[in-house]
Amino acid sequence: MNEKQKKIVFFYIFVLAGFFLLTGYAAPQRWCTLCGMDLQKYNQTRYILTLGNGTEKHTCSIHCAAIILKKYDCKKIKAADYLTGKMINAKNAYYLIGSDIKGVMSKKSKLAFADKNKAADFKKNHGGRLTNFKGGLSAAMDEMSEDMVILKNKLKYLVNMGRIVAETNSCFTCHGENGSGGINNPGSKNGLIPPWSTKSKGSIKEIIVFGKKSSGVIQMPGWKDHIKGKELHALANYIWKTGQASAKKLP
After folding, report:
1. Which of 123, 142, 161 marks a domain boundary?
2. What is the DSSP string of the chain?
3. What is the pLDDT of residues 158-179, one digit of tens each?
4. Residue numbers of the domain that contains 231
């Protein structure tokens, strides 16, 4: 690359950086705030909840949204229109409960629609019952206990699968058995690789996919080309569960 080409590239980088700063643009959140599921995959059932302080919580489903709504008062709730993926005011949406579409984080599906007639047409082909946001949220709350039993059993499977993924990709070589850390890493804090994090599953996925810089000799590389889809989700759940268990043992 000659000097002229370098200047052109630098100019465009400068323009793009200015655009992002001036517009406040931010890349869309990739993972569910609670369960870490891929929001691109669950684009038709996702939610954005705006808390009283302006913080946004992104979820893959009304199930995860309901858990947040149990804990926080939200001034704005947006749901994806199932047919288009476009975000709409959840309180104005029409809900189809218990159709033949597979539920997300729930045994029964709860789908939001922007248009009542389109929701009714969808019901003719897929079954279920029509209601409003209050009815959809109530159904999610009522089925919460049953769904959590199913999800806990699924978590056990994911954790076991995640350990296999960790073993296959030699994660323990750097992170120690069960991610307990303690491996020498000159130049890093305490000179060691720390135990696995107890951060959210989404944060763990970000580190697996894109890596993490360290002041030490050993750097955490990104594994986006090697660990994907179900394996990524399983590994994130294993790391999260292992981190939670380790944190409980601390004095």
Report:
1. 142
2. --HHHHHHHHHHHHHHHHHHHHHT--PPP-B-TTT--BTTTTTTT-EEEEETTS-EEEESSHHHHHHHHHH--EEEEEEE-TTT--EEEGGG-EEEES-SSPPSSSSS-EEEES-HHHHHHHHHHH--EEEEHHHHHHHHHHTHHHHHHHHHHHHHHHHHHHHHHHHHTTHHHHH-GGG----B-TTSGGGBPPPPP-S-HHHHHHHHHH-B--SSSS-B---TTTS-HHHHHHHHHHHHHHHHHHHHH--
3. 999 999 999 999 999 999 998 9
4. 146-249
